[in-house]
Amino acid sequence: MSEADPSALPCAGDHEALSRLEGICRQIAKGDYDNVDDLFALTVAEDASETIHQLAEAFGFMLVQVEAREMRLNMLIEDLTGLKEQLEIANGKLKQENAELSVQLKRLTVEIDRQELKKHVGAIVETEYFQDLQQRAREMRARHMRSDQARDE
């Protein structure tokens, strides 16, 4: 049977050190990092065994990783918030430009409709059928005017 490492054996102060470690870990779990120095002090506390030292060191290492992750997340949140603001500004500009372009499009549509109308009317006016109708209308007006004049005399 091999002998146990004496530094790994429980010390008389382990119960108290373990209670302190538990309390510190509970505070950290709640987001309260004010007692971090106490956690790191447990890594070398003379009234605690090597096991408590190792636990405190492992929790300290996890804490450092959590803090680093939180810092990265906060930086990402700040970046995303800035980007969101930029997108909102760009969206506002796009809405304004879209409204202006819609007005211009309506004006152009009306202008195109007028041009199309002129083109179609011009095409109709130039047809032989329309010119024949115009000639007949002139002749009818002329007859009507002559008959009105004949009645008046």
What brief labels describe this structure?
mainly alpha; single chain; about 150 residues
Report the order of strands and helices.
HHHH
Return residue spans where pLDDT drops below 50 for at least 5 consecutive residues. Answer: none
Overall mean confidence score, pLDDT: 86
Helix/sheet category: mainly alpha
Helix content range: over 70%
Strand content: under 5%
Biggest pleated-sheet summary: none
Q: How many beta strands in the DSSP annotation?
A: 0
Shape: rod-shaped
Radius of gyration: 47 Å
Number of helices: 4
Distance between the termini: 152 Å
Explain how this protein is built.
The chain has a domain at 6-91. It has 4 helices and no strands. The chain has helices at 14-29, 36-42, 50-125, 128-152. It is rod-shaped, with a radius of gyration of 47 Å. The model has no long low-confidence stretch (mean pLDDT 86). Keywords: Coiled coil. Residues 73-118 form a coiled coil.
What is the structure about, briefly put?
Helices cover 81% and strands 0% of the residues. It has helices at 14-29, 36-42, 50-125, 128-152.
